[in-house]
Design goal:
Strand content: under 5%
Distance between the termini: 42 Å
Structural class: mainly alpha
Order of helices and strands: HHHH
Shape: elongated
Largest sheet: none
Number of helices: 4
Radius of gyration: 12 Å
Number of domains: 1
Mean pLDDT: 89
Length: about 70
């Protein structure tokens, strides 16, 4: 099983691609991913399991994208 930090970092590209496909802007996508990664590292410090961190990464990005879409409308 991978180290928790490696688990978080290994999902960064996946999250960046998804964020970029939604925003169409590299800077905005980077900000979204940075926020999600920061939250994941906070969870890591609290002792969350790797599976929970991975699910939270995707869930947090989806929530931020939904929030962004609501503001756009």
């Amino acid at each position: 099983m991978a180290m928790p930090v490696t688990t978080i970092l290994s999902h960064q590209d996946e999250l960046a691609r998804k964020a970029l496909s939604v925003t169409g802007d590299m800077n905005e996508a980077g900000l979204l991913v940075g926020r999600v990664m920061s939250r994941a590292f906070d969870r890591l410090e609290k002792g969350a399991a790797e599976d929970a961190i991975t699910a939270a990464l995707r869930r947090d990005l989806d929530a931020l994208i939904t929030k962004l879409r609501r503001k756009a409308n």
